[in-house]
């Protein structure tokens, strides 16, 4: 069994949000970038007609460029603020990895998820996330109170191999 306690700081959550946004919002990102290209072409063409029109079209062009590349900054901030509202500053997560399932706790809420339900994962230098649909179970690699990251990595790949495909 492994136990991990993670304090969700804004910095840690934004690392998760960036990776999750890129994974879950790929079609939105592509669409936003296509619209950006179209608006940029329209802006360039309208410049020959009217500089004012070109200036007005520059705003949505920049907006779609931002949302296509850095939209996670907005969604991540909003999601983190909601967690803080519900669970207080720097919410605490506790993940207990048992033989057949994961017990996820945040505040007084508890969720049990069998390993076979996980369908993805990703990691950064400091965190690891198991994914079920668009939900992420975030853990800090250095947050193990029982076990350690190296042993856990072997364990979770055995218990949820589909999350690594």
Question: Could you name the key traits of this structure?
Answer:
single chain, 165 residues, alpha+beta, PH-domain like, 2 domains, three-stranded antiparallel β-sheet, 5 helices, elongated
What does this molecule look like?
With 165 residues, the protein is α+β, with helices and mostly antiparallel strands. It folds into two domains: 83 residues, PH-domain like (Roll); 45 residues. 52% of the residues lie in helices and 26% in strands. The protein contains five helices and eight strands. α1 crosses α4 and α2 packs antiparallel against α3. The longest helix is centred in the N-terminal third of the chain and has 24 residues. The protein starts with a strand and ends in a 6-residue tail after the last helix.
- CATH fold title of the largest domain: PH-domain like
What's the main sheet like? 5 strands, antiparallel
Average pLDDT, rounded to a whole number, is 83
Order of strands in the sheet with the most strands?
A: 4-3-2-1-8
Low-confidence stretches: none
Structural class of the secondary elements?
alpha+beta
**CATH class category name of the largest domain:** Mainly Beta
Shape: elongated
Characterize the quaternary organization of these chains.
single chain
CATH architecture term of the largest domain: Roll
Distance between the termini: 24 Å
Name the beta content range. Answer: 25-35%
Cα gyration radius (Å): 20 Å
Number of helices: 5
Give the H and E element order: EHHHHEEEEEEEH
Count of DSSP strands: 8
Range of helix content: 40-55%
Q: What is the count of structural domains?
A: 2
């Amino acid at each position: 069994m492994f136990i991990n306690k993670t304090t969700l700081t804004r910095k840690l959550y934004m690392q998760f949000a960036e990776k999750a946004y890129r994974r879950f919002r790929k079609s939105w990102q592509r669409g936003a970038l296509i619209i950006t290209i179209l608006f940029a072409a329209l802006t360039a063409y309208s410049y020959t007609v009217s500089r004012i029109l070109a200036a007005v079209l520059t705003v949505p062009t920049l907006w779609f460029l931002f949302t296509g590349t850095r939209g996670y900054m907005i969604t991540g901030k909003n999601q983190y603020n909601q967690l803080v509202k519900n669970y207080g500053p720097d919410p605490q997560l506790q993940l207990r990895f048992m033989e057949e399932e994961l017990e996820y706790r945040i505040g007084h809420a508890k969720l049990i998820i069998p390993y076979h339900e996980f369908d993805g994962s990703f990691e950064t230098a400091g965190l690891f996330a198991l994914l079920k649909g668009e939900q992420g179970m975030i853990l800090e690699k250095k947050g193990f109170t029982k076990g350690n990251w190296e042993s856990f990595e072997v364990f979770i790949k055995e218990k949820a191999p589909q999350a690594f495909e």
